[in-house]
Amino acid sequence: MRHNLIYDCIVVGGGPAGLAASVYLARLNRRVVVVDKGNSRASLIPRSYNHPAFPDGVPGQVLLDRMHEQASRFGVEHIAGRADRLEQIDDAFRCIAAGQSLQSRAIICATGLVDVLPPWPHATELVRNGNLRVCPICDGYEIGGAPVVVIGNSRRAMKEAAFLLSFTDDVTVATLGAELEGLSPADLKQPIRLVTARLTRHRPVPEDRIALEFHDGTMMEAVAVYSALGCRPQSLLARALGVKLDEEGRIPTDQHQRTDIRRFYAIGDVVTGLNQMGVAMAQGEIAAVAAHNDLTETFSDR
Predict the structure, then answer these.
(1) Is 22 in the same domain as 77?
(2) CATH classification of the domain holding 136
(3) Which residues contact 92 (CB under 8 A, 6 or more apart)?
């Protein structure tokens, strides 16, 4: 194991947020390393049509590849592996990752979140191929008035179904046999329908749709399907370090992305707020400048 690699900042997570932060830090002449396992949520996006400057849309992995190339041109180091542990040592931090012990004066946490998907084989590939959707803000426009099924049994699912009425008037909530959590069918906003039967069969069909067959005989031949089963913030490293989390397990920050631990910043989907690539990248830029300024003040205080 290699020891005592001193950086100005370690960025944990190589999605749009973390990569944007790393570019800004490098261009501020900071020595920065990105620790990333390579499973950014953005990599699952088949094509984003609402990201600025891409009128024909851009696949998530293509955007990540371009950002990686940009970061490397400015000397950002990259460690392909998972960050296993973060700890404070005196006035700095240690990150154990990929068999290395890295030290830095600041940490930017960009660990993101994981969507909870239906218990289907190859559900992740369905997301990657565009058949199973997780963000109506991102791609609701592309529905084009087609029928939509929202999978879930919580108030979150009901809110998502109501939101989708902006794009279609044919919306169904399917609980897949689960009971409604703290809700009743009367809580559904019209004209949203409810199917509570278990799912018998599902299969992807052309045009980014899924065919569904339910145990009660209900069949839907080609519908846009959204998973509204919630998400899991990837905040265990921050929690172990003692960073304050909110009730959902996300990391609260101030307007400069600072947390309650000095020189520990959080950005992107792991932070409370809107889960959008543009938001994540802006947070990365804000955190990078804040870290640079805080590090400068730390040096001047010595």
Answers:
(1) yes
(2) 3.50.50.60
(3) 103, 104, 105
